[in-house]
Structure formats: structure tokens, C-alpha cells
């Protein structure tokens, strides 16, 4: 489901820290043998956040995850696939800005 959301640039709904969030997932990667996703939070408990920013979510902490039929535009200004934290651990990511053009 995470691969599909990233590949098709579709949002995910999930419960995280007892809050329902709508996420725009940008990259799936591993850290210390655990899986993480960096995503932009589009909504938190039905309301938009004060500012859009990239957040890190541990997959084990996301509950009731579902793929929804709502597309998002990759937010390359908030996300840098070349960041050193992704080097050698990326499993899947949105296309780089130059490839999407």
C-alpha cells in the first residue's frame, strides 16, 4: 500500500498518536532495521496544519492505514531525495523533480 501511494502520488489516511492524519507520502526508507516514511501532513483530525512540512513516521506507529483516491503533487521544496539520511536506505520514493517534468 505504501509503494502504491508513493508511485501513484495518492494520499494515505492513518491514525498516528491517536490522531487521524491524511498524509502525502514521499519516501519509504529504513533506519536501524525499521521502516519509516517521510510524508507531508495534509490534514490532522480533519483540519489542515498551520504549515505544510515533511514529517517522519515510523510505519509501526501508523494504524488503520488506508489508501484514498486523492492525488497530491510532490512537494520538492519540502523534500530532498538527495538528503544524506536517505543514502543507501531508500526503498521507494516519488520521482525526482527533473524526472517528473
Instruction: Count up the helices.
Output: 2
| Order of H and E elements | HEEEEEEH
The tally of beta strands, per DSSP, is 6
The best one-word shape is: globular
Instruction: Give the end-to-end Cα distance, rounded to a whole number of Å.
Output: 25 Å
- Low-confidence region ranges: none
The value of Rg in angstroms is 13 Å
Task: Summarize the topology.
Blueprint: H1 2-8, E1 10-16, E2 19-31, E3 34-44, E4 54-58, E5 63-71, E6 90-93, H2 97-100
Antiparallel strand pairs: 1-2, 1-5, 2-3, 2-6, 3-4
Question: Could you describe the 3D structure shown?
Answer:
- The chain has helices at 2-8, 97-100, and strands at 10-16, 19-31, 34-44, 54-58, 63-71, 90-93.
- It is mainly β.
- It has one domain (2-100).
- Strands 1, 2, 3, 4, 5 and 6 form a 6-stranded antiparallel beta sheet that branches.
Main traits of this protein?
101 residues, mainly beta
Amino acid at each position: 500500500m505504501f509503494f502504491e501511494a508513493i508511485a501513484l502520488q495518492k494520499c494515505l489516511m492513518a491514525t498516528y498518536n491517536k490522531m487521524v492524519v491524511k498524509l502525502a507520502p514521499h519516501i519509504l526508507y529504513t533506519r536501524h532495521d525499521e521502516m519509516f516514511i517521510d510524508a507531508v501532513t495534509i490534514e490532522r483530525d480533519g483540519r489542515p496544519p498551520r504549515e505544510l512540512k515533511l514529517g517522519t513516521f515510523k510505519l509501526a506507529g501508523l494504524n488503520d492505514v488506508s489508501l484514498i483516491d486523492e492525488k497530491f503533487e510532490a512537494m520538492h521544496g519540502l523534500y530532498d531525495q538527495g538528503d544524506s539520511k536517505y543514502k543507501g536506505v531508500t526503498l521507494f520514493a516519488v520521482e525526482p523533480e527533473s524526472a517528473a517534468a
